[in-house]
Design a protein that fits this description.
Blueprint lengths: L10 E8 L5 E5 L6 E4 L2 H21 L12 E9 L22 H22 L17 H16 L14 H17 L3 H4 L2 E4 L2 E4 H26 L4
Parallel strand pairs: 1-4
Antiparallel strand pairs: 1-2, 2-3, 5-6
Length: 239
C-alpha cells in the first residue's frame, strides 16, 4: 500500500459519500486516510485537494515516494454513494468497492507503518511541551487532551469492528491510553487470520471490512491527530 504505485502517483481515485444532510466526504481510495468534507461535491473536492497536498508533504517527510512538485495531479471520482450519515456532524458510514478487497499482509503492514509515522509526528510535539498545555482552552472549544483521548477511544472502537474485545483496564494517563490503543491496533492488524482479511460484516447497522477499518484508522489519526496539533499550536507557550 505505497502512497500510490507506478502511474498512480499522479492519479488519485476518489470515493464520495453524500450524507442525508447534503454534505459530502471525499476519500482517496488509493491513499487510505486522506479525506476531506464539504457542503457540496464541489467544495468537498476542493477541500480534498488541499488535504492531499498536506498528505504529500507528510509522506515526503516520512521518506515515501510522492509526485514531483511540478506534476499535474488528476483527481478522478470513481464511486459516489449516498448514505444516511450526517457528514457535517462528523458521521461517515460508506463502504466503497475498494473496501471489499481482502486486506493483504503487505497492505496491513504498510498501513501500520503509516499509522506509526503519523503517531510519531504527533507525540514528538506533545512530549516537547508541558503537560499543563494539554488542558488549556482553545478557540475551538476542546483542549488538546480531550482531542487525544477521543483519538484513543475512537481508535479502539474502530478496531473492535474486527472483533477485538474491550480493554479490561483503561490506563489513566492520556499518553498511556494512546500508546495502549496503538499497540492493540498494531497487534490486531498484523496478526489477522486469512478469513478475517476478506470478511464482510454488518455491525450495528454499518458494513465493515478489514480494509475499511484500516482506512478509518488512518483517517482518525490524520484528522484527530491534526486537531490535537492545532490545539497545541493555539495555546503553545513562546519558545
Amino acid at each position: 500500500m505505497g502512497p500510490m504505485d507506478g502511474d498512480d502517483l499522479t492519479h488519485v481515485r476518489v470515493g464520495l459519500e453524500e450524507g442525508a444532510d447534503g454534505a459530502v466526504m471525499a476519500y482517496a481510495l488509493n491513499l487510505p486516510g486522506c479525506a476531506a468534507a464539504g457542503g457540496s461535491p464541489e467544495s468537498a473536492i476542493a477541500a480534498f485537494e488541499r488535504t492531499l497536498a498536506g498528505w504529500f508533504r507528510f509522506l515526503a517527510a516520512a521518506g515515501e515516494p510522492v509526485p514531483p512538485r511540478d506534476a499535474e495531479i488528476e483527481v478522478a471520482v470513481d464511486e459516489w454513494l449516498r448514505t444516511d450519515a450526517r457528514i457535517a456532524a462528523g458521521e461517515t458510514v460508506a463502504l466503497f468497492a475498494e473496501d471489499l478487497r481482502a486486506l493483504s499482509q503487505a497492505d496491513a503492514e504498510a498501513g501500520v507503518r503509516r499509522l506509526g509515522d503519523l503517531r510519531s509526528r504527533l507525540l514528538a510535539r506533545v512530549r516537547r511541551r508541558p503537560e499543563a498545555l494539554l488542558d488549556a482552552e482553545t478557540p475551538g472549544g476542546m483542549t488538546a487532551r480531550q482531542v487525544l483521548e477521543e483519538l484513543a477511544r475512537a481508535q479502539w472502537w474502530t478496531l473492535s469492528r474486527l472483533g477485538a474485545t474491550p480493554m479490561a483496564e483503561v490506563p489513566e494517563k492520556t499518553l498511556a491510553r494512546l500508546d495502549t490503543a496503538m499497540a492493540l491496533v498494531v497487534d490486531r492488524l498484523t496478526t489477522l487470520p486469512d478469513d478475517a482479511r476478506a470478511q464482510h460484516l454488518e455491525l450495528d447497522g454499518e458494513e465493515w471490512t478489514a480494509r475499511k477499518v484500516l482506512r478509518r484508522l488512518l483517517w482518525l489519526e490524520w484528522t484527530l491527530g491534526g486537531a490535537a496539533l492545532t490545539a497545541l499550536t493555539a495555546v503553545d507557550a513562546p519558545a
